[in-house]
Specification:
Layout: E1 2-10, H1 19-34, E2 41-49, E3 59-65, H2 68-76, H3 90-100, E4 107-114, H4 140-149, E5 152-158, H5 164-174, E6 179-181, H6 188-211
Parallel strand pairs: 1-2, 1-4, 4-5, 5-6
Antiparallel strand pairs: 2-3
Helix pairs in contact: 1-2, 1-6, 3-4, 4-5
Protein name: Hemicentin-1-like von Willebrand factor A domain-containing protein
Pfam families: VWA_4 (PF25106)
Main location: secreted
Length: 212
């Protein structure tokens, strides 16, 4: 079984308390999957997103690789920074993951981790520098349907309650999908365990769905 697994993660300053735990979780998942070969042969990739005010640092993309060591080395350089208002460039991050990465394996899994929704009043009622939506013209319908057309299964890891409306809107477009509760527990290891379980569940679910 050959799988492409892409982690899409909010890397703005609001993720400062979570990002090291998330990175450690991703590394643990990658190491575990490497030990699953040859039963599951997996390529891993990463797309970090921030916000429109962050210029050249808005997106941080590592294309797919079979090398666990290469991926972990790249991920070590990711840090939480930037972001202005509460909403983030979620649609830009998802769009980049779908269109800029070289999806190739038959089973394609995208696991999105974030604590705030996209820009636009349909997603939030907080401080929003772009209340009319994505300033580059992206829409959730466009991004998510392109994801579906590419045969990519979407899963979401929830860090806070601020993404509840986003989840409802997304599911109204592409149907139900698993949402994993990754809210931080008092024990940092709790995130690693939750994240590991979520990633393994996402892969197994995608394999099952593709086989139907």
């Amino acid at each position: 079984m050959e799988v492409d697994l892409c982690f899409v993660m909010d890397c703005t300053g609001s993720m400062g308390g979570h990002i090291e735990g998330a990175k450690n979780s991703i590394k643990k998942v990658v190491e575990y999957m490497e030990n699953m070969e040859p039963a599951i042969k997996i390529r891993v990739g990463f797309c970090g997103y921030r916000d429109h005010c962050d210029g050249s640092n808005r997106l941080q993309i590592f294309d797919f690789t079979y090398s666990c060591d290469e991926f972990k080395n790249r991920l070590s350089g990711v840090s939480a920074s930037g972001g202005g208002d509460s909403p983030e460039d979620v649609l830009g991050g998802l769009n980049a993951a779908v269109t800029s990465m070289t999806w190739r394996n038959p089973t394609r899994v995208l696991l999105h981790i974030g604590d705030y929704p996209p820009h636009g009043r349909r997603f939030n009622n907080t401080d929003d520098d772009y209340p009319n939506g994505d300033p580059n013209g992206l829409t959730a319908e466009q991004v998510l349907r392109e994801m579906q057309s590419a045969g990519i299964y979407y899963f979401f890891g929830k860090i806070t309650e601020h993404t509840e409306t986003m989840t409802r809107v997304f599911q109204s477009i592409i149907g139900e999908y698993p949402v994993f509760d990754l809210k931080i527990s008092p024990n940092p290891e709790g995130l690693v365990e939750k994240f590991f379980d979520a990633a393994c569940s996402a892969i197994n679910t995608a394999i099952t769905l593709r086989g139907e």
